[in-house]
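A protein record in our archive is deliberately plain, so that people and models can read it alike. The tokens are whole numbers drawn from a learned vocabulary of local backbone shapes. For reference, a complete record is included directly beneath this paragraph.
>
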Amino acid sequence: MSGTPARTAADAASSDVVCLGESMVTFLPSQPGRLADVPSFVRGIGGAESNVACALAAAGHRAAWVSRVGADGFGDHLVDAISAYGVDTSAVRRDPTRPTGIYFRTATDRAADTHEVAYYRAGSAASAMSPANVPYEALLAGRVLHLSGITAALSADCLALLRELTALRPGRPLVSFDVNHRPGLWRGGDASPDVLLDLARGADLVFVGEDEAEEAWGIAGAGAIRAALPEPAVVVVKRGADGATVFSAPRPGTDTAHLSESGTGPAHPGGTGIDTAHPGVTGTDTAHPGVTGTDTVTTVPALRVDVVAPVGAGDAFAAGFLSATLRGLPVRDRARHGHLMAAAALTVPGDLTDPPARDRADHLAALDDAAWGRLRLGPGWTGDDTEVRST
């Protein structure tokens, strides 16, 4: 295989974030319309967890991706493409009997009625991941282990793996979990999306959209979501155009400095890296029913963005939030960096793009509330001041 050389085991042990999950070769339409009418497609890569790893690596962090791919050309392409972002792929395993997954999608928003996705992932190499065949030494080597609910839906073995990785045990990395509810993946299976709630309750940091919480669990409203997820130290509720609301609370044994860039990783499960002494963090918000008195609630408005393609924003938001968490930034700025990274993804055709330079993102994240509210970002904004506009 060509591409970036595999890093050594010692390199893997120094990862900031390890991401576990399936990545697939994706075929993007050359023009809008039904899949039946699109004449040609452009090859790309797509996978929630590898998207996060690529975005973090592009932002200057040490990121690793753990998965299984087929011993085929598509598997070669995935590993090469993800390695090219600077991601450590040394723990990716090749399966000689199962293929690499692929999918085709339309150009419309995933939430739109006209959106179509055709997955060819049943029986894929990644769906065979299990507690018996993953490299635990690589999974547990980072300061953060990032997971998603997509993996839980791939197979019974994958669900068993995620149950094990979200089980509370001393010395584990900080566990980040993006619910990522995909209704189509749960149809016809033995499990239901209710298991996503159980998995999320075992994590330290949870990302969940208001819309997916209502669809998967019948729970409406940010406060009700937090009430259903009392265990995680941090719950980030993504509210679309209304922004994001972050619920954070101290947990026993939490070391608020352990995820700073000079830190060595969490000493205790439940550590958040949240420093509530930083400015920009609001007090307890009684507008959210079900929130306990120990929670700090921070709501950060979304940015106005000239959208090119409405895909990849959720993964990019998680990457931006994790990046700022690793740097020990205050909660408000973590959410703002999430919004900025999401805006970078929304202003390009595919799932992945180069993030804004760190000093540029820091400058925008530090704006006062009025200036933040006036921002409007368009295509090219990550490298062109003319595309960062105020209204």
Observations:
- The longest strand covers residues 24-29.
